[in-house]
Amino acid sequence: MENLVIKVQSRETVGTGSATKLRAQGRIPVNLYGPSGNRSLSVDKVDFRLLAKKIAGQTTLFEIETETGERVRSLIQEVQRNAISREVTHIDLREVAKGVEITAHVVVRVKGESFGVKNQGGLIEIVTDQVTVRCLPRHLPHEILIDVTELQVGQSVHLRELPAYEGVTYVGDADQVVVACVGASKMEEAEVEAEGGEAATA
What share of the chain in percent tops pLDDT 90? Predict the structure, then answer.
């Protein structure tokens, strides 16, 4: 992937009023957290939209560039959105120091058509859509790709069974289910239970 750079500006004032004004100007408030201290910044919403499109949901390192030309390697920690419009309202970034291990959330994706789907009428369910990893920045995977070709109905892939990546350690319960092949009836039952829960809280 190309070296990604996005320009930011320092924020002299913070708070709800300042953030609202920034958004009206087409900018998004940003907090950068790191060993050199926390910073209040802002980014043009169009620039961030383009960056997000290039990243395409992957866990990817990029650089932010300040008004003075300083560049800081960063990682998206959290993106907040408006519940109705889904517009990005706030971004938290984490500074990444070269040669220092980081802990990051990496998206889970699957490849292949499983035996259970093809021959047993099953469905693939991604139970855990992100897993936590620890590694040096240069070893950070963009995604965790799981081959489900051999998976049959009733079988699961656990954290301890995830593919090995150079320099990467998975963090969490080794028995945690990440991907499962379930019978169609089980999936339908889960959907009915979820709909019932939503109705009960409405």
Answer: 65
- Sequence-ordered strand ranges (E) for 96-159: 102-111, 122-126, 130-135, 144-147, 156-158
Q: With CA atoms as reference, report the closest residue to 137 among 89, 181, 103, 112.
A: 103
pLDDT confidence of 192, banded at 50, 70, 90? very low
Distance CA 172, CA 189 (A): 28
Burial of 100 (0-12, 13-18, 19+ CB in 10 A): exposed
Query: Which domains are seen in the chain, by residue range?
Result: 5-95 (2.40.240.10), 102-201 (2.170.120.20)
Tens digit of pLDDT for each residue in 78-130? Answer: 899 988 888 999 999 999 988 889 999 999 999 999 999 999 999 999 999 99
pTM for this predicted structure: 0.75
Residues 6+ apart with CB under 8 A from 89: 19, 23, 28, 29, 80, 81, 82
Which residue is listed with tokens 């907090």?
31
